[in-house]
Amino acid sequence: MNIVDIILDKRYGRELSEDQIDFFVRGVTDRIIPDYQISALLMAIVLNGMTDRETTALTLKMAASGQVNDLSFVEGVAVDKHSTGGVGDKVTPIVMPLCATFGVQSVKLSGRGLGFTGGTVDKFESIEGFNINVAAGDFPDLIKNTGMVISGQTPDLAPADKILYALRDVTGTVDSIPLIASSIMSKKIAGGAEAIVLDVTCGSGAFMKDKERATELARTMINIGNLAGRKTVALITDMDQPLGRTCGNTLEMMEVFDTLRGKGSDDVVETVCNIAAKMITLAGKNEGMDHEALVEECKKRLSDNSALSKYYELILSQGGHVMDTGIPVYKEMPFEELRITAEEDGYISGIKADTIGHASVLLGAGRLQKTDEIDYGAGLCFYVKVGDKVRKGDVICSLCRGENRKVEDDKIFDIMELVQSAYSYSKEKPEPRKAVIDIIE
Ligand code: URA
Q: Is any atom of ligand 1 closer than 6 Å to the C-beta of 180?
């Protein structure tokens, strides 16, 4: 077998055999196949696609390219969640303690932010003392004590995906359903999950720009999950405007805290409770409730402090500091630098999430390169959402930087203009947006 024949087969639209896919993934992991041949095959996959059989084989081979976690210490079903990424996505730090109130135990392996989507690891790291690099050997004790552990992904989790993802990023081959699906599902399977809830984001701030593509990605991942023996459910959620009231690390963790005190925004509460309800059901802990009843019960547990108590357990068990007042201690507080005002009278008809995400990175909240340092205090606060009525001059949004700001003063006005360009206005009230667009079982 040789790689040139495999590239030619895919270039002419032929289905690759399991042996060919195995040969490719081994050659990638062992660094035997040079980057130019890997990239050629990736481009052929982007152009000609893959059948479900090929996509599943690619996923399973990538999952097996490194360490596969054994989560047998988890009591009941080990259920995991994954978001395909977005702006202002603070779902995981709320969902974990919420699920824990139902006795669902979760081992969450998360990534750092790169590009305009934020990373859960960076968000937790904005809390002073919080250890996000937990050794796998410590997972069982943490699970026994609190039912939850969150840790950064180790390099030996699906290493083939790491090599492929880095190449896709620089060869214009990220946007491909079989490649995205196999990349995500290989890490979930290697992470040891028995059941998986996928949050497939859809809109300007997501990989999938419309509902049709998001549904296709969701169906592909569900198919892989089921063929791999994992119960898998997907929610299509709105990412056509930023989720919630903030984006940026400390700002989002402050919003997490508010949501756990029953003061969350409607879109965050709706998204979190629907995802949690599916995780609880897959774990068999729904106590006889159907989906709608479970969503209502989740909302109740966000307002009666039960999820907040579990959140404290999670923070303290991983070394995070909490003040006597109950408020977590953040590494860098956000300071408001500039307010942005509405340019017209009317209704907000759009807030481009990708533009806001880019502005947030430029403010210092995210990374353009893996090695960039971030300003935990940087980010944006949103005072209006799509559908809200405004008058010219109303404050619609503010830009924040931390004490150790990484962005020079003269850049902040360019960022302000960029943020202004994300907003659009209409005279007519736009249709209300649904936070959860669809649920696919
Ligand atoms: N997230 C991943 O892990 N992989 C992709 O390809 C896209 C999003």
A: yes
What's the pTM? 0.95
Residue with tokens 């923070």: 315
Tell me the CA–centroid distance for residue 140 and ligand 1, in Å. 28
Q: In what helix (H) or strand (E) does residue 340 lie, and over which residues does it extend? A: strand 335-341
Q: Look at ligand 1, atom 6, and give the residue with the nearest C-alpha.
A: 180
* Ligand 1 geometric centre to CA of 198 (Å): 12
- As a whole number of angstroms, the distance between CA 130 and CA 320 comes to 4
- Rounded CA-CA distance 373/361 in Å is 11
Give the dihedral of Cα atoms 81, 84, 86, 90; nearest 10 deg: 10
Contact residues for 43 (Cβ-Cβ < 8 A; gap 6+): 171, 172, 173
Tell me the domains of the chain and their CATH numbers.
3-49 (1.20.970.10), 79-317 (3.40.1030.10), 334-426 (3.90.1170.30)
Choose which residue among 82, 184, 189 to substitute to test ligand 1 binding: the one with the highest number of ligand atoms within 8 A of its C-beta. 184
Residue pair 425/369 in contact by the 8 Å Cβ criterion: no
Please indicate whether residue 126 is annotated as part of the active site: no
For residue 165, which atom of ligand 1 is closest to its CA? 6
Using CA atoms, how far apart are residues 233 and 252, in angstroms rounded to an integer? 26
Per-residue pLDDT 10s for the chain (441 aa) are: 999 999 999 999 999 999 999 999 999 999 999 999 999 999 999 999 999 999 999 999 999 999 999 999 999 999 999 999 899 999 999 999 999 999 999 999 988 766 677 789 999 999 999 999 999 999 999 999 999 999 998 889 999 999 999 899 889 998 899 999 999 999 999 999 999 999 999 999 998 999 999 999 999 999 999 999 999 999 999 999 999 999 999 999 999 999 999 999 999 999 999 999 999 999 999 999 999 999 999 999 999 999 999 999 999 999 999 999 999 999 999 999 999 999 999 999 999 999 999 999 999 998 877 778 889 999 999 999 999 999 999 999 999 999 877 778 888 999 999 999 999 999 999 998 999 999 999
